[in-house]
Specification:
Layout: H1 18-49, H2 57-78, H3 97-105, H4 111-117, E1 124-130, E2 137-142, E3 165-175, E4 178-183, H5 184-209
Antiparallel strand pairs: 1-2, 1-3, 3-4
């Protein structure tokens, strides 16, 4: 879980300005979305690895793309936070997502590139998995769409020291005539580290200003249902 239940991001002080609430709550929402898609990805890769029914390859690889897309949104929200030095180097570890996110966002413009390179338009996803009961390890790959013998090597070598569970969840795609790789697991760890540092900073600032956390449970993520009267 990227943001824990007792995080200050779930309990922002009510004294904050509306603009501050919008930005910080945007970070909460995008973090929750990243968390959701990551858990969905892990669950479905586990189903494939253990030969159980899964939701379908196109949907599974879209979970990976949605993680990157929401990481870009996370980046944008964070850069709206006030900074006296305009220093956002804390986000540098996330710079790896831009080529990938642009690839997905402008996928219609990449059709020609994929045809030229005979590459999967939505990329490929690779992972290593080791079962904690049988102690057996496997390397998996999913390719959405009709299989094409790509000119680029879209494979991840099997890890000899694969730990229990998942390792090396790698999303790969072709852009500008080269192969791009990104580790989904490493990306999640980087986001978690950024959130931890942000929480530490916020807790310190709110303590200095003597403002207390507020329980927004009844005032956030609201659902409104209304009865439609028959005419």
């Amino acid at each position: 879980m990227i943001i824990k239940e007792d995080s200050i991001l779930n309990n922002l002080p009510k004294e904050l300005l509306p603009q501050q609430l919008i930005i910080l709550d945007g970070l909460r929402i995008t973090s929750n979305l990243i968390d959701y898609y990551y858990n969905q990805l892990l669950n479905e890769l586990l189903n494939i690895s253990t030969k159980k029914k899964h939701v379908g390859i196109p949907i599974i690889i879209d979970f990976a793309w949605q993680i990157l897309d929401n990481t870009k949104k996370f980046n944008s929200f964070y850069k709206k936070l006030p900074s006296t030095t305009n220093d956002y180097t804390i986000l540098d570890p996330l710079s790896c997502i831009y080529d990938f996110r642009n690839t997905y966002q402008h996928i219609d413009e990449r059709i020609g590139i994929s045809i030229k390179n005979e590459a999967q338009l939505f990329g490929a996803l690779h992972w290593n998995y080791k079962d904690n009961l049988s102690n057996k390890a496997l390397a998996g790959t999913i390719l959405p769409g009709i299989y094409i013998n790509c000119k680029f090597n879209l494979q991840v070598k099997k890890s000899n020291n694969c730990e229990t569970g998942f390792s090396n969840i790698i999303l790969q795609t072709i852009d500008n005539n080269k192969r791009n790789d990104i580790s989904i697991i490493d990306l999640i760890i980087k986001i978690q580290n950024i959130i931890i540092k942000l929480e530490e900073t916020l807790n310190l600032q709110f303590k200095e200003k003597k403002v207390l956390p507020y329980n927004w449970e009844r005032e956030k993520d609201i659902t409104i249902l209304g009865k439609v009267e028959d005419k």
